[in-house]
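New to this. Explain the following:
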Amino acid sequence: MSAVDVNIITKIIVEFVGTVTNMRLYPQNHPQVLNRINRLSEYLLSVFEKMPELNLFILNDDIIALDKPLPNPGLVGKSFIEILSAKGIEKITLLKGLPKLELYQFMDELASVKKKSIAATSHIKLGKVILDGALDQSMVPPDETAELLSFKYKAAAELKKIYLEVQGNKIPDTDKAKKIVGEFIKIYDKSISPLKILAPLKSDDEYTYVHITNVALLTICFADYLGFSGKNLEEIGIAALLHDVGKMFIPDEILKKPGPLTVHERTVMETHTLKGAQYIGHQKNIPKLTMISALEHHVKYDGSGYPLINKNWHPNIVSQMVSIADVYDALRSRRPYQEAMKYDKIIAILKEGRGSDFNPVLIENFLNMIER
C-alpha cells in the first residue's frame, strides 16, 4: 500500500475551508457549495484507498497530518484552525466509508455561526488534544497514537520553557520536568517502536529543543528496555531532559549558527558540559544523576571526547545511554548544513563505534531495542 501524498492533505484542507466559506455565502444547493463538497469527498476517497482513517490535529499553530506538521499551510491553514477552534475542536478523525451526505451535513453544521459546538458522527470523530494525553471521552475513544502524537510536540514546547528559564537566570521548574517524564512513562506503549515516538523537526530554530526532547524520550525507552523502573526510571528521564542545559550559557551566534563551527567556536561549544554540570550542582531538588549526565554525555567509552577527565574514569551508565540516544537523533535529523542520514548508515556508525565511542553492551541492546 503506497503512502498518502502530503499534497492531497493540503488539497483537503483547501476544500475544507472553501466548503465552509461557501456554505456561509450561498444557499445549500448552490453549485459553488456542491462543487466544493464533491471535490472534498473525492480527495478523501483517494486517501481512504491507502489508509482506513485520516487524523488531523491542531497543536499550537500547526496542523498535524500523517504524524508531522503540514508544511507551509499559509492563510488557508490559519482559516482551518480558526474554523475548528471556533467549535472547540482540536482533533478530527475522518473514517473510511464516509458518505457524501454525512460529510455535507457535518460541514453545514461546522459552517453555522450560531452553533458553538457540534457532535461527532458515525464516520467523523472529534476530540481535544491536551498535555496529559487524555482525549475527550464523550467525543472519541482513547487513541494511543493520538496520545503519543500530542505528547511529543507539547513536551518539546514545555522543555523549551524550562531551558529558557535557565537562560534567563531563573531557577527551572523541576516539577515540569517530572511531569513530562511521568506522563511519557504512563502513556508509553512498549509494543510501539521507540523510533515512532521521535518528533520531527518543525523548523531549524526549534532544533535544540526538539532534539533534546527526542534524546530524552529515546533514553527513557532505552532505560525501560534495560529494566530500570520506578524512581530510577524517573530520575534517568529527568537527567536526559536536562543533560544539555549548559547550552543555554553558549552565545546564540554559536549555538544557532546555520553551519559548521570554527575551531574557536567548537571550543566554546564544548564548555556547555561543564557549565551545565556547575549550574545543576547549585540547584536544589534536581537529582545528582542530572549533574553527572550533563557533565559526561560527550565523554566517550574509551575516555576521549570532552571534557578531559582522568584516563581511568568510566562515565556513568546513564551518561553513556544519553550519548547513544544523542548521536542517533543527531544523525537522523536534517540541518541547514547536514542532510538526515539514512537508517542503515546510522546503524553502521553506531556499530563502528563499539568499544571506542560507545559501550559495546549498551550498543548491542540499543540496536536490539530499535530493530525489534
About this structure: Strands lie at 53-59, 62-65, 68-69, 91-95, 124-127. The chain has two domains: 6-142, 146-370. Confidence is low (pLDDT under 50) at residues 130-144.
